[in-house]
Amino acid sequence: MRIELDLQTVQGSIRDIPDFPKPGVVFKDITPLLADPAAFSTAVDAIVVSYGRGTIDKVVGIEARGFIIAAPVAYHFGAGFVPLRKVGKLPYDTISETYELEYGTETLEVHADAFEAGDRVLIVDDVLATGGTAKAACNLVEHSGATVAGLAFVIELEFLKGSAKLDGYDYMSLLQY
Predict the structure, then answer these.
(1) Over the Cα atoms of the chain, what is R_g?
(2) Is residue 131 within 8 Å of 163, Cβ to Cβ?
(3) Is the previous residue joined to 152 through a cis bond, with omega within 30 degrees of 0?
(4) What average pLDDT does the segment 119-125 reach?
(5) How far apart are CA 53 and CA 93, in angstroms?
(6) What pLDDT band is residue 103 in, cutting at 50, 70 and 90?
(7) 61: phi then psi, degrees, rounded to nearest 5
(8) Predicted local distance difference test score (pLDDT) of residue 5
(9) 19, 33, 89, 173: which is deepest, by most CB within 10 A?
(10) 120 is catalytic
(11) Which of 4, 65, 85, 116 is catalytic?
């Protein structure tokens, strides 16, 4: 899903960092977006408008930049916030999912009791790249008995075709590169 909003402020606040985290990768840095109140609030509001208040029970933020976007989205929905973290960062019983990303493998964990059966969950992250992280997040939510209501990203790197791994899921991205 694509939304029609004036996203020039958001787009103008994304910085390209060449050769990070490894040579040949152009990292899309959202820290200038986070520092700009107009860009940050526009990004959060666009996600909330896209899914509508009252439709989401929990908002998942994927470590680490996804936390920053997901928390205010959850607040606006009146929903709970659930962090998906890298291995060993959560203090309670967890379930995990290992996946491939564009430059290696990673494992995400969530508390085993983070969701209730039937919860409508929105998954939020800064970037949709190869789709591995997003699909792993979907698997964790569904394994818990909750429903993925959708996924929201600030940036989609279309050339990596990550949306192919999200077939059957509703998703939106604010910016496409």
Answers:
(1) 15
(2) yes
(3) no
(4) 98
(5) 31
(6) low
(7) -110, 130
(8) 58
(9) 33
(10) no
(11) 65
Q: Is the pTM of this model over 0.85?
A: yes
Question: Of 63, 100, 102, 106, which residue is the catalytic one?
Answer: 102
Helix (H) or strand (E) holding 43: helix 37-51
Helix H or strand E segment including 173: strand 171-176
Extract the runs of DSSP E, i.e. beta strands, from 53-161. Answer: 58-62, 80-86, 94-101, 104-111, 120-128, 147-156
In tens, the pLDDT along 146-175 reads: 999 999 999 999 999 999 999 999 999 999
Task: Write down the domain spans for the chain.
Answer: 55-176
Residue labelled with tokens 């790197």: 157
Instruction: Please provide the size of the chain in residues.
Output: 177
Higher-pLDDT residue of 99 and 84 is: 84
Q: What is the pLDDT of residues 88-102, one digit of tens each?
A: 999 999 999 998 766
* CATH architecture designation of domain 55-176: 3-Layer(aba) Sandwich (3.40)
Burial pattern 77-116, b for ≥16 Cβ within 10 A else e, equals bebbbbbbbeeeebeeebebbebeeeeeebebbbbeebbe
Place of tokens 């004036």: 6
